Amino acid sequence: MISGVLAVVVAGLLCGLVAQPAQAASSGVLHVIQGLPGRTVDIAVDGKTVAGGVKATEVVGPLTVAAGSRKITATEGGKVVIERQVSVGANSNLDVVVHRPASPTAAAVITTYANKLAAVPRDKAAVRVAHTAAVGPADIRVNGQVLFSNVANGESLDVVVPAGTYKVDIVPTGATTPVVLGPLNLPVRAGYLTRVFAVGEPASKTMNVAVATLKLPGSGSQKPGLVNTGTGGQAAGLASGSPGAGLPLAVLLLAGALALMVRKAVRR
Length: 268
Prior knowledge:
Blueprint: H1 2-24, E1 27-35, E2 40-45, E3 48-55, E4 59-66, E5 68-76, E6 79-88, E7 93-99, E8 109-114, E9 124-131, E10 138-142, E11 145-151, E12 156-162, E13 164-172, E14 181-188, E15 192-199, E16 208-215, H2 237-240, H3 249-256, E17 266-267
């Protein structure tokens, strides 16, 4: 009898251990970034409005949703601006950006970016820069030096850098003028993932950035062996080149932090 009771108790405990992770992993988190300049929209998930009167560069969330295919809808004045399905993985964390493609007159698009919430060394910060503005391929300069070259609309790059403040601007690929965006000061905080989304249109002088942060889990003490990166054109070439003499220290540290691996954003 005692053996039977113990068996039931053990079986119950095992079922609890198995069921709880499955339940915890049955949902994901969304952050919806409004990247349409000059427009004020309402955001809905699966037909339910989660935020109203959202202006450009504002971030809606975090929103906990069931894993699976979720319908994201942006409306303005009761009219649908864009409606797309996005795939939410179990226990995932996603940025969902409503923005213009490279052509400022084209219909809005939605691009998703997976947030990698991995620990970084205590004095480091994770940064993502995403090109979601209505311009063609561009170079992203940090402290006056091109670090990310030929980044197309919808592409992003992720790096781990020393915490601090960086001066960032964006110019057309291979050119120094006109400056499409910036220069702007970008503070990055140790132990956080800072996400930067370039939005807007140069012609209408609506270029801007949406910035959001996420606290990372307990930071480690050692330099990571791998840095997850995005899909930014020729940025992979930076890993094999040696930085030139005379570059600002912050730029050298940033370049040295890059161990590149391609990761594709998902456009709907």
